[in-house]
Write a structure and sequence with these properties.
87 residues; 2 strands; mainly alpha; 9% strand
């Protein structure tokens, strides 16, 4: 990974070519960590999207299942028998 031409630390710009070897190593370490943070953020976004999809599917399944359950537990009404006329 190549170093950027300049870095900014605490509001001060530095030319990376003029940094010590140790400082250049630290800049590289920061670049590696920043890349990993970006990768993890992307993974998190993927996981959150999947979770939202699973949650939406669950809501659909529960609502669909609830209406089926209600429909199957209702008793069907029998027509009333006519009353016999008193003679």
């Amino acid at each position: 990974m190549s170093l950027p031409e300049y870095i900014t630390l605490n509001g001060t710009n530095y030319t990376t070519a003029k940094l010590s070897a140790e400082a250049q190593v630290q800049v590289q370490n920061i670049q590696v960590v920043d890349a990993e943070i970006g990768r993890l953020q992307q993974q998190l976004a993927i996981a959150q999207t999947a979770r939202n999809a699973y949650s939406a599917a669950l809501v659909t399944a529960v609502k669909g299942g609830a209406s089926e359950t209600k429909a199957s537990t209702k008793k069907s009404r029998q027509p009333r028998k006519p009353k016999a006329k008193a003679e």
